[in-house]
Amino acid sequence: MNIILLGAPGSGKGTQSQNLSTLYNLNHLSTGDLLRAEITANTPLGQQAKTIMDSGNLVSDDIVIAMIANHLNQQGTLFDGFPRTLNQAQALDTLLATHNNSQIDYVIELDVDQEEIIQRMLARGRADDNEHTIRNRLNVYNQQTKPLIDYYQQQNKHHKIDGSGAIEDITARIQTIIEPTS
Ligand code: AMP
């Protein structure tokens, strides 16, 4: 089983990914986490990505697609923060078909009010979370990532859930999509 968690930055994808990857024994792949690990290790890739990430813009498709290709295994995967562009979504379909003979099963969009997101992100205080960057990241999401909703709707894979409220309640809402009969 392969799942994509879709949602604006600060919508809670990371937190829900941890719960879901444990519940369903999935390989949790976060391109944001992988990029931050490159920055911490001070690799050339990390140095290149840092400036882009600090501005709130997207790292190039080629870089993140290669990272995902390197981390796919035979386990089902929970994709967190990837894909973020149509190009990435199409590349992911091809990668899953060729590497794993599999496909995306569920795309779960966490719907959270933008003002609530800005407050959440300011509260978590990460280095790339100042208000100017946050607003840019939301614009980038609206322009480059939102078209993915249409892409997955056309494949009947898109499910939107209310991403506000208690963490466990949000996880339960996602479970009703993945296990509709339980
Ligand atoms: P995140 O932790 O998912 O919010 O990602 C933090 C930053 O890493 C983003 O603002 C982007 O600059 C970069 N990033 C993470 N995932 C991707 C992706 N799939 N495509 C392009 N850039 C990404």
Q: What's the structural blueprint in terms of helices and strands?
A:
Blueprint: E1 3-6, H1 13-24, E2 27-30, H2 31-40, H3 44-55, H4 61-71, E3 77-80, H5 86-100, E4 106-111, H6 114-124, H7 131-145, H8 147-154, E5 158-162, H9 167-178
Parallel strand pairs: 1-3, 1-4, 2-3, 4-5
Helix pairs in contact: 2-3, 4-5, 6-7
The structure holds adenosine monophosphate (AMP).
Question: What does it look like?
Answer:
- The protein has 182 residues and is an alpha/beta fold.
- The protein has a single domain, classed as P-loop containing nucleotide triphosphate hydrolases (Rossmann fold, 3-Layer(aba) Sandwich).
- The chain contains 9 helices and 5 strands; from the N terminus they run E-H-E-H-H-H-E-H-E-H-H-H-E-H.
- It has a 5-stranded parallel sheet with strand order 2-3-1-4-5.
- The longest helix is centred in the middle third of the chain and has 15 residues, at 86-100.
- It is globular and about 45 Å long.
- The model has no long low-confidence stretch (mean pLDDT 94).
- Bound molecules: adenosine monophosphate (AMP).
- Residues 9, 31-32, 35, 52-53, 56-59, 64, 81-82, 84, 88, 137 line the site of adenosine monophosphate.
